[in-house]
Amino acid sequence: MNKVRVAVLGYGHLGKWHCQKVEAHSDVAEFVAIVEKFPAGQEAAKANHPNVKVVSDIKEVINDIDAAFIVTPTSTHFELVSYLLEQKKHVFCEKPVCSNDAEGLKLKEIAATKNVVIQVGHSERFHEAWEKLRDTFQNLPTPYTVRINRVAPFKGRATDVDVVQDLAIHDLDLVLYLFKQKPKSISATGYKIRTTKWDHASINVKLEEDCEALITVGRNATREVRDLEVISQMGMLSVDLFSNKIFIATNSQFGDGTFVSEESYNKRDHLLLEHKNFYKSIQEKSSPLVNLKDGLNAVHLVDCTLKALETKKSEMVKSFE
Fold first, then answer.
1. What's the Rg (C-alpha) of the chain?
2. pLDDT by 10s per residue, the chain, length 321
3. Cβ pair 101, 39 in contact under 8 A
4. How many whole angstroms separate alpha carbon 285 and alpha carbon 118?
5. Per-position DSSP letters for 229-275, written without gaps between them
6. Cβ-based neighbour number of residue 99 at 10 Å
7. Residues with Cβ < 8 Å from 164, sequence gap 6 or more?
8. How many Cβ atoms sit within 10 Å of the Cβ of residue 168?
9. Distance of CA 244 to the CA centre of its chain
10. Domain range summary for the chain, segments of one domain joined by +
11. Region 125-265+302-316: CATH code
């Protein structure tokens, strides 16, 4: 089978990691080009990848590739994804796939006429914990409450976007992926602390059957926390995404006399797994784990959250298929 000819668009912090993953898949991918418009980035790309062509515009290599990884600022995603789809190229785009619902509708129209793979970089779906727990989450008795925390001290990065677009989008996507009950409405409160954008947000997602998801994201916290817990009449189940541990407290005692069980799971290279899934989807002509529809649904929830933050009113969520 022929190798997938690949270009990486963007050689910033994350773009460098994507380039490494392309090289790690040399058995299925041919690394053709890095597209980087800034001179400093071009020099770094040439130094680190001397056998790869470095250009400033994707149009210079569009006829030499089968697929592209978009790792550029969010404001450029819609234009780049649209162009690559029009050229019938397979696309991996880091989240979010576009900036808003209006762009999403246009991408959906373009993609409908192209027979290509479109994968969105929601890397949080690749935790091993979800392979162990998704069936449990899908079959929870209702009602239940989901709590997700993703906060950290200020790091000075990604301040071109707010925490909803940068962080909460991961957790909004996880709510769609892990749980059967779909969002009905979203309310939110937030604070602009270090930047002119939202630096902290508390998001309440009302789900079907009286369920809810309470999401907290922030980039000015005193310590870093990343966890998810679910509370229902069956008890509590929590996942510590830093220590890679699952804790369960049911409505009864365990056989060893304890009331809380603890299980570890493996830490994995999510970016590597995303690449593997992308190439497999291209070769097998199958849908990736995170397809365009998934990416657009997440964008819609971000749109609703941002409107709720600005208006201080609850926003209705459109129906999901």
1. 21
2. 689 999 999 999 999 999 999 999 999 999 999 999 999 999 999 999 999 999 999 999 999 999 999 999 999 999 999 999 999 999 999 999 999 999 999 999 999 999 999 999 999 999 999 999 999 999 999 999 999 999 999 988 778 889 999 999 999 999 999 999 999 999 999 999 999 999 999 999 999 999 999 999 999 999 999 999 999 999 999 999 999 999 999 988 787 888 999 999 999 999 999 999 999 999 999 999 999 999 999 999 999 999 999 999 999 998 765
3. no
4. 11
5. EEEETTEEEEEETTTTEEEEEESS--TTS-S-EEEE-----HHHHHH
6. 18
7. 190, 198, 201, 203, 217, 302, 305, 306, 309
8. 28
9. 19
10. 4-122+271-290, 125-265+302-316
11. 3.30.360.10
Gap between the Cα atoms of 206 and 196, Å rounded: 28
Q: Which CATH number is 4-122+271-290 given?
A: 3.40.50.720
Encoded amino acid at 293, one letter: K
